[in-house]
Amino acid sequence: MSNREATEYVVKMRRYFHEHPEESFKEYNTAKKIEEEIKDMGLSPRRVADTGVVVDIKGKSAGKMVAFRADIDALPVTEKNDVVYKSKNSGFMHACGHDCHIAMALDISRYFSANRDFNGIVRVFFQPAEESPPGGAVKMIQEGVLEDVDYIIGQHVGSDIPSGKIGYRAGPSNANADSFRIKIKGRGGHGSAPHKSVDAIYIAAEFITLAQTIVSRKVDPVKAAVVTFGTIHGGYRHNIIGDEVEMTGTARTQDMETRALVKSELRNILEGLCKLTHSEFDFEYEEGYPVMVNDPEITEKIASVASGVVGKNNVVEMPQKMGGEDFGYYLQKVRGAFYYLGISNEKKGFTSSNHSPTFDVDEEALPIGTRVGVAVIKELLAS
Amino acid sequence: MSNREATEYVVKMRRYFHEHPEESFKEYNTAKKIEEEIKDMGLSPRRVADTGVVVDIKGKSAGKMVAFRADIDALPVTEKNDVVYKSKNSGFMHACGHDCHIAMALDISRYFSANRDFNGIVRVFFQPAEESPPGGAVKMIQEGVLEDVDYIIGQHVGSDIPSGKIGYRAGPSNANADSFRIKIKGRGGHGSAPHKSVDAIYIAAEFITLAQTIVSRKVDPVKAAVVTFGTIHGGYRHNIIGDEVEMTGTARTQDMETRALVKSELRNILEGLCKLTHSEFDFEYEEGYPVMVNDPEITEKIASVASGVVGKNNVVEMPQKMGGEDFGYYLQKVRGAFYYLGISNEKKGFTSSNHSPTFDVDEEALPIGTRVGVAVIKELLAS
Amino acid sequence: MSNREATEYVVKMRRYFHEHPEESFKEYNTAKKIEEEIKDMGLSPRRVADTGVVVDIKGKSAGKMVAFRADIDALPVTEKNDVVYKSKNSGFMHACGHDCHIAMALDISRYFSANRDFNGIVRVFFQPAEESPPGGAVKMIQEGVLEDVDYIIGQHVGSDIPSGKIGYRAGPSNANADSFRIKIKGRGGHGSAPHKSVDAIYIAAEFITLAQTIVSRKVDPVKAAVVTFGTIHGGYRHNIIGDEVEMTGTARTQDMETRALVKSELRNILEGLCKLTHSEFDFEYEEGYPVMVNDPEITEKIASVASGVVGKNNVVEMPQKMGGEDFGYYLQKVRGAFYYLGISNEKKGFTSSNHSPTFDVDEEALPIGTRVGVAVIKELLAS
Amino acid sequence: MSNREATEYVVKMRRYFHEHPEESFKEYNTAKKIEEEIKDMGLSPRRVADTGVVVDIKGKSAGKMVAFRADIDALPVTEKNDVVYKSKNSGFMHACGHDCHIAMALDISRYFSANRDFNGIVRVFFQPAEESPPGGAVKMIQEGVLEDVDYIIGQHVGSDIPSGKIGYRAGPSNANADSFRIKIKGRGGHGSAPHKSVDAIYIAAEFITLAQTIVSRKVDPVKAAVVTFGTIHGGYRHNIIGDEVEMTGTARTQDMETRALVKSELRNILEGLCKLTHSEFDFEYEEGYPVMVNDPEITEKIASVASGVVGKNNVVEMPQKMGGEDFGYYLQKVRGAFYYLGISNEKKGFTSSNHSPTFDVDEEALPIGTRVGVAVIKELLAS
To answer: Which pTM value belongs to this model?
Structure first.
């Protein structure tokens, strides 16, 4: 298999999945396409957790089992890129790069299916619903994806790293990724008579501005926290005072004390604000993926192997991030680590953040992702 | 026709229309039912303006033509009343009492069709889309509803007047009822990375709180103004920073200078806020129904006639209101006046404001509305 | 006495008092100067209420007693006008025109002392502390200033009326002028550690923004209300989180129900906000001067007499204002009215509002004020 | 010298200085008292930088010179502790523990003056104005306090460390401590006429709430930043709309990029807000003490020596803090380090933060501070 072919395959796959994004827990066509590709390699995929796919590739003799995980779901974002491979599933988009993750995991599977001169087993698996807590990892584990696994590896494309570079971090690497849902309940009425109503839209707006102070004044400045309101919906018509507004959001923290503080302050501000505005509220706070903790020794191996592929200067230590990842659940069970593949490229115009409607990747990074993945797996098989 | 029968008819009709509310400009079934009822009276309705209905009832000899107008559209409100006549068209509700207006106009038609001993012509007409500017009145006028009309009368149910009373006001009686649509345009991104995005939901929230100062600090305190945000919609998902939020609202004023001020301050606040938040905006401001000006002489007649029906103590002068009404367009062409029928009743629990999801009326007021309407028309025919 | 002389006197007096403003209840030098001027006219002033001055001017024979009142205190404003008669008492300024009121009242006294061919008594009196509730009127009444008085007249310079015009209004003419004092009590600490403190300055800021909604959303839009924060003081140093902030302000309303609503909402917002910010508060609300109610018949006389002086077109009906005036206390005891003397002049650059540090008056209006005052008094003496 | 005596001396001194706090750059009596104490020890103090004091204590023979620095100024805080040693200089308080710093530095001087069996010179110096940038350190350096110095040591009492413990940190240890001064310039007027004025107090309030988003949304969540408004003053009187408000505050950051962002966003928000409120502003931003960088090797020595005094378990590594310190200027010239002395004690009720009006220390910690200081100096003299 020439490099050129490999590139063509990984890019072809990435573009296929980019054009066909699917919602978390509903990746039916995605799973079907993955199975087809794997079967075309002469391998035998098996379905788990409804839309998850697992394939085991056996080497020439017995040895360690190394798992490589790709997440496969898309986001409810309407793509704003004007590209030939633009999402055809309106309202959904691979805005977090899982299309790349699938493509590279297939490419890695293809490599090992064609190059069996290793000891042990390479398990490549495709997990649903990373974007949507409780997430697909818990279910995959329940259905046995970690059985007999010695080490596990995950790879994520990062818009904060230039194409050609690899990022790593030992120990706690990201955030508690919690979600909340808030409903403000006022009293509707005619738009011209605010004094006879309790205006839920105004109250929701005030709540969002008041909640800024959780991060600006309540959390220890040397600790990280984010409170983001991701959606807001309320009201019926321009001239009717709305009786209900619903907001959802995410709260990110890097330690348990701050997590508890953010949660209690959200409730506290709601209580005070609803008291002063004569309104009521519903508040649901769901603790999401916990902080992911990478094995230091395996992280060290990844950094070293990656240096061999991209050069020492292109391997960079990352700060602890605010993102959530359900890969952390695997690391609670099995030794392993998660690392990052740079995909931004200012010259080519790939500068948008993950999750934005204009997110896109420098596809020249994808064969690098394949090569690093292959090299890391080989190193761990040999360890 | 006994009183009892009349009551039964007006209540039956009111409940029918209450159960079957329709959107502004789409009152097809409503118009059809009105036509059927009118035909049942032996009269010949004609369709105008797509969903409008007009019927002329001729007296025993020639004379003045007096028009009586009812508006027929419902609001996009989901009814929260637990009543046998609850709206069956989910998401729509006669929350402004137009069901009553139709029922009383039919009842009045029924009266005059059975009692022809008057000179002149009574024109009863049913207008679409009072709730949705540009409104149905303009179209009705274009299609000739005012031709040959000498005087025009309109009646509205008011939750601010107890059942059994009639309200009137000479001269300027309500508000400029304008609407606006605002879109905040930020830059989307991952919910955990606010520093890389421009959070349209936060900006929209800040805008709503800042806009409070138009009324509290910018408008002359002795002048009336309302700025209400009726809807807000934005974002995709709890963990994505939304790039767009759309808000609609209504601005109410009672004079032209204040109207201009409110409009310019909305734009001014948007410009300053978007500058400081690195965002952009769209702003559309539509001038809606102008202030309605009742003819003082005809208002005087209405007050006098109403005193005969409900007693002098039950006829009350109303303050200038903040509501909008496209009846004002008729009054720019023909002499006439608009008056109010009390329908609240604290003992019976009818206390919710017009436009609220729990709005309901004391149905014992409806035959009073019919009787006042009939008496006013007779007085004007005779004048 | 020629007109020219009169002008020179009233302007000279106005400038003298403008240069020497004094604080409410402490107008010692002002009262002394007034006494001297009155003595120079051959009249016998008497002191009341510490810094008040009263003088009775007897006509040729017995008759009615008509009182004319001038208020004499200045405001704690630092003058920003660059004029030869600029305030010499730094930090105080006649920014509400009481210097003019004194000057015209002296000028009127001078006129009647020189022209005794009237029946009855003209009582001119100079009242302290109109700007500072509980105000000087209450004390003046207690000390007998209204004894034997048949009618009472007051005149105020208004920046909202062009020089050369007179404004009048029958019935309720201004506002309940209440004041409040609020202290926010947090917990101090190092400026770098907000999470260990409760930041009273932030909370005060949030309170001021939240309080905007009393006027924008809680008060009936067709009713007038103002909530102004006039002072704010808090904190110790840029790098210390302040534990206390004190604010004072004024609340203006034109009816009792709205007055009660504004007061209760201020408290309500404080309670909710302090709950959500873990802080405490002190709240004092003092009901100030009540709405002033002018006698309609006497107002009619004033308008008529003023037309004779300035021409019918220059006599204008005023809207009900938001200002407070303790003249209302006199009108609760004796028949009378209050009217306005125009003093703005765009061409000459006199456009600043009363109470602003650049307030100034077109002095050509002052002799008009004298003439209208004299004419009104004569009319009432003759009635 | 017995331990008991030593304790008595350090506590006596601490209480003396606590009772007599003085403003930054005006520590005249403090310096005088320090000189007297030093003279009583038989030493020869010299004045530098107006209110600074330096004393050199020579050992038995030549060697290294080790400097020990104490800062001596107090804060403009009104003490709220009810203690026998309460501040007698109303409005000022040693709320940051510099009273302890002086007392321990005197105690250390006393020790070395009585125990000369060391090689080299111990230079103890007392620096004015640590609390008030540009600070006293710059001036002390200009006047030669670092001449011939080999190592420099500073010690600070910390309310975040329990009494009995010592805190240390190598490398960057605190924050850029910048200050700003903002004036909002509106247009004054009568409190009842907001529409004719531009209300500087409302605008300042809005600015403080808007500025919260610098930390909550603009700064990278994994980077530390604080924006505190320490003072606010504006307005003249409850019923006058204020034309000016002045605010001061501090901005804390731990890196240069975030420092620049905070500064530019403060300006940016001011510009946008003043545009939308028709007001103007002044903005001064002064970069204060830079991040202090402790020498790792000397920090290691301090931790090791401190372990010998208080036990290994009582020596703790500190996180990078948000406080500022002009000790950093010395470390730019001479090798050295800064460390922390625990003084909080929950059981005894010493829990208030530095800079709060109820800040107080567990005095049993003070002799520990002396002992650690003496031991560290000895170690460095011997190195």
So the answer is: 0.81
